[in-house]
Amino acid sequence: MKLEVLEKDRYYHIYNRGINGNNIFENDANKHYFLKQLGKYSEDKISIFAYCLMNNHFHLVIRLNVEEKEVTQAFSNLFNSYAKAFNKQTQRTGSLFEKHFKRIMLKDENYLKQLIIYVHLNPKHHFDLDFKDFKFSSYQAFLSDKETKIERDEVLTLFGDLENFIFCHNQKNNLLNETYTFE
What we know:
Oligomer: single chain
Largest sheet: 4 strands, antiparallel
Radius of gyration: 16 Å
């Protein structure tokens, strides 16, 4: 599979999972550490619009603020740093992630909005968990007044306002509930 070239000022869905579908996060501390390392290695290189950390995979919605080489190196440093710490903690060796992180360039604003919702609803897709209460997605950062590295204002402007942001998430969640309801 040929990897999509990353371009400055473009939006991307970045994701990866554990090798063989294995967990990359064993506990909340692992997820906190991953987010800390993400902030450390990506600061000023990317803007983060959404994220979700599941046990065996993660999703990021980002925009590149610098050239590809810098961002690719930052992600490499992040994943290597995290894998070394995880392997040490869990007394394992070898690769943690599938070979390369996946990336899909977002073609338009509507795709960006739909992807943000998809990423936030990921706990529903995989574990039938309420996305509103899931601790390791960026959804709650949009509802909070606390300082965040998420591009809160830009995303809320994209959706029109906070009320519409919430409405769009609930509407998509309701559609998923209808899909899974059997009579």
